Design the sequence.
């Protein structure tokens, strides 16, 4: 039996909600997903949540005969709409292989990183990397403005070298235009960074830049930008001039 054939005969529930509490409410209780799923079914969680709730729900699902795959995503709304999300997964190998043909409908890449929780830990790596990148890009564009340079010309050149990144290619224009009513919200990024910082405490990792950028996002929230895109870090720098 191929993974695609197995997927055709399997039962799946795919979820992407807000936080740990939301996920528990979807999964648990008499009206929760686990109670309504048959033995051998696969629950795929695309939410970015803590490794603790993932471990809890993996164990609860197993007790009900259900497989639980933690599968947070990167790529945002546009990635979902265009079917090009990056999906990082943790869980049992057999369940993952069964779920891959379904996930492929909206993913550009889908990889099992390891056992349960590995997907969430990988998403934390993603958010840690993004935090530093967006702050660095914000500072570079702010510096260009203060130096009287044309930001678009600057990016045209530096994006082709070692400074290039997805954030630079996809966010520099709206950053230069001071437009942030789109994309992944600051409120959600602070939720994710909080998960990263808690996990870092648990495993003994040092995240000094991540902790600093989290506080910068707190400043953006104070500016009224909780729903602004994460690239709004540059607006914080501009606000410092006022």
Sequence:
């Amino acid at each position: 039996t191929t993974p695609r054939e197995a997927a055709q005969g399997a039962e799946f529930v795919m979820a992407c909600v807000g936080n740990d509490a939301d996920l528990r409410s979807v999964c648990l209780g008499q009206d929760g997903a686990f109670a309504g799923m048959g033995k051998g079914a696969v629950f795929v969680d695309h939410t970015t949540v803590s490794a603790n709730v993932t471990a809890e729900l993996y164990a609860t699902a197993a007790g009900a005969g259900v497989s639980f795959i933690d599968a947070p995503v990167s790529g945002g709304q546009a990635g979902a709409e265009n079917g090009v999300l990056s999906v990082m997964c943790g869980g049992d190998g057999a369940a993952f292989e069964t779920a891959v043909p379904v996930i492929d409908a909206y993913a550009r890449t889908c990889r099992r990183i390891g056992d349960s929780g590995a997907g969430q830990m990988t998403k934390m790596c993603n958010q840690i990397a993004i935090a530093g990148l967006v702050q660095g890009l914000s500072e570079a564009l702010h510096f260009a403005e203060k130096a009287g340079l044309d930001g678009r010309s600057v990016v045209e050149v530096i994006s082709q070298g070692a400074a290039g990144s997805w954030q630079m290619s996809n966010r520099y224009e709206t950053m230069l235009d001071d437009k942030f009513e789109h994309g992944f919200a600051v409120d959600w990024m602070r939720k994710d960074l909080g998960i990263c910082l808690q996990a870092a405490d648990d495993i003994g990792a040092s995240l000094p830049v991540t902790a600093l950028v989290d506080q910068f996002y707190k400043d953006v929230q104070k500016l009224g930008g909780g729903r602004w895109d994460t690239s709004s870090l540059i607006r914080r720098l501009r606000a410092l001039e006022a």
Summary: The chain has two domains: 3-115, 122-239. The chain is about 55% helix and 10% strand.
